[in-house]
Amino acid sequence: MVVDLVRKIHWLLSAQFGVDLLKTVRAIVAGPRYLRDLRRFRARYDGRITLTPCLHDWHEEGGATTSEYFWQDLLVARMIRAAAPEKHVDIGSRVDGFVAHVASFRELEVFDVRPITTTVPGVTFTRADMMKLPASLSGYCDSLSCLHALEHFGLGRYGDPIDADGFRHGIASFADLLKPQGVLYLSVPIGVPRVEFNANRVFDPRAIMDTASAHGLALEQLLIVRNGATVEPVIPDSASLAALAEQRYLLGVFVFRRVSTAPIEFGSVTRSAGAHVLTGSHS
After folding, report:
1. What is the pLDDT of residue 274?
2. How many CB atoms lie within 10 A of CB 266?
């Protein structure tokens, strides 16, 4: 609990207020080494020197591979390359990560609630709110991705409308976008279900699977990325899913296939003897 609190405070100060105490401490500690190296270099070099301290790279590896974004972007891009779909569409994933990976070997279209003004080779951008899918886009593609984006739907963080059911409306739109037998690649935070307003949601994986199933999407594969460092396949039985829902935080990478075109009305979720029963209506 204390570790989680420290992490949250550090994130709030650094990401939202631009105050990174950890970097400040590291810079102070690295100062003497910087000055020592500068003196040694100056003793052997008589040309012009300007001071541009880089005080943190001594602590880093040669590349950043301990990130859940790194793993999801790489893994899903490789899946799409192997599947070779006719038309791939992405919803809100990182342009400087996953979208760039896919654009390196094929064309794709990106829908995002925010404007994207940069022209990127192989990428077509469309500004759209995926909580409300235009009828003209029904059956639009046979391959669809949404990586680390659905958890933001309806929280207003990116200028989207406030909607407590935003993620459900998003999944409904994803299913409608897909042609029969089309594939959805979806990643979201999973663990103890909660809303961390207005940053993101963390989902019980069963809530994602229930909502997807209600719209004709069948789970084909589930991977988890743990601590940004390891990727583990999951057999989605009741015990495994219940255990995942008790974790503080993991990244779940779901692969769904659209096996039905008839959506089931849904709302509240009840469970009996391990079965998932959906009742209510979609509004």
Report:
1. 32
2. 20
In whole angstroms, what is the distance from residue 275 CA to residue 283 CA? 24
117 three-state secondary structure: coil
Using alpha carbons only, how large is the chain's radius of gyration in Å?
A: 22
pLDDT at residue 264, as a whole number: 47
> In terms of residue numbers, what domain contains 205?
68-279
18 and 106 in a single domain? The answer is: no
Residues contacting residue 122 through CB under 8 Å, at least 6 positions apart:
103, 104, 106, 107, 108
Q: Which residues of 75-99 are buried (b: 16+ CB within 10 A; e: fewer)?
A: bbbebbeeeebeebbbbbbbbebbb
CA distance 154 to 164: 6
Examine the domain organization and report whether 37 and 154 are in the same domain: no
Residue 269 has pLDDT above 60, yes or no: no
Closest by Cα among 250, 170, 246, 245 to 214: 170
Beta strand spans in 135-238 (E): 141-147, 178-190, 194-196, 200-202, 217-226, 230-233
- C-alpha–C-alpha distance, residues 141 and 90, integer Å: 10
Asked if residue 43 lies in contact with residue 37, where contact means CB atoms within 8 angstroms, the answer is no
Task: Clarify whether residues 40 and 141 are in a common domain.
Answer: no
Are residues 29 and 159 both part of a single domain? no
